[in-house]
Amino acid sequence: MKTIQLPKDSRLCQRDFIFGVATASFQIEGSAESRLPCIWDTFCATPGKIRDGSNGLVACDHVNRWQDDVQLIQSLGVDAYRLSISWPRVMYQDGSLNQAGVDFYIQLLDALKALKIKTFVTLYHWDLPQYIEDQGGWLNRQTAYLFADYADKISRAFAGRVDSYATLNEPFCSSYLGYEAGIHAPGKQQKAWGRQAAHHLLLAHGLALKVLKKNSPDSLNGLVLNFTPCYAQTEDPADVAAAQLADDYFNQWYIKPVLDGEYPQSFALLNEQDKPGIEPGDLAIISEPLDFLGVNFYTRTVYQACAEHGFAPVDMVDAPKTDIGWEIYPQAFTDLLVSLHQQYQLPPVYITENGAAMDDKLIGGVVNDEDRLAYYQAHLLALDSAIRQGVRVDGYFAWSLMDNFEWAEGYLKRFGIVYVDYVTQQRTIKTSGLAYRDFIQSRRR
Length: 445
Ligand code: FCB
Known about the structure:
By secondary structure, the protein is α/β, with parallel strands linked by helices. The protein is built from 14 helices and 15 strands. Beta-D-fucopyranose binds near residues 169, 226, 406 and 407.
């Protein structure tokens, strides 16, 4: 299979459905010397935290190669590019803007605009300035206000250049993986910390969203959440309850406060010492209406009941998996979108990330990643099915434009539709990238 095919009457085949590619600052930029340190620099420098011992000092050298990368994006024929801003590149510790860093993004945004490529900007894709972490990071309520100040200054500096702002990318990862499980920066590990960080991140989102709506009323302003739908291993009520509990904890925790102004029911099950500090009025700030919801989807998790923790993940030993070990289960993509639509009054949805890590090989100038292409084909069909069931989805972004620094996995896992040779920094469009390009192109005929 070398092509992506969807029924001609699919919403995804309409010209105004937005197709894009996505990246994030720390994962591609490099040029760490021209910005302040962030929590991922510190984490990478801590032995044992990154699987291949690597870091983001060079990454894809995007800061130096941005012009070529813009051409690459253009050559894929996409409607939009989703990027994130490195907070430590654009702001100094005293809260003033670093003009050189701001100018880097302005050039990039202007170049994209000139090519009529829509700009989807995420303000926080995990690279918290280290000086803020030194003051407690997301455990410190003040960080939410610092974030709103950053959103204010940067959105004024970017005036008119941004089609869409997302405040945060995946607060689940920043809070749970970073402060509760300890497997992402800053590597803190305590349940109470995870819950507190989550609350402060959501507060930061709400404060910043209000600012963005004021400073940039013509942009589509919202939030990007990731969802890993939770399935019960059996129909046994204990397993079903376990899956529901996990869903509350990992998924609903981040969307329900935003759309309904309250935490899910299982909040009440937290031990007193694990409950986050919440001030009166916080949930009203957090539930500031969104112009759009960004949904990131990769995989599902199956759960069984567990006496100690309430729920325990089950390894689906025989299921197909990507190179990072995530189960390939496209039905979960449809189920997720339909269930969100049933549960909430959703704003328009954009799929802000979807993709797969595969064990790519560059042979004779070609990366024949038919496995990734099959993943995209199946997931676009799953998306089509959700839309046919009434979910309003207006766009889709492939993760990622190119291979990059995959967090705790370092450079070992490749998610790009473009292959990056990290020695020469040469980019090669993979078979999946060519098929994505051809599919997007076919809608114009
Ligand atoms: C998401 C992140 C993104 C990338 C993909 C694979 O959780 O937002 O940066 O690492 O996973």
